[in-house]
Amino acid sequence: MSSLLLSFFPMVFLICCNAMPKFPCCPGSQQVVAVMSKYIDTFSSADADKSTVCSTAKNTVDRIKSDLSSRGGCPSGGEAQILDEIDRQLKNIAKMEINYEDECPYNLGFAGAMFDLAAAAAGHAGTDTKWQNMKGQFEQESHAIKAIGQELNITVTDVHDFPRTKMCQVQAM
Question: Where does residue 71 rank: exposed (0-12), middle (13-18), buried (19+ CB within 10 A)?
Answer without folding.
Answer: middle
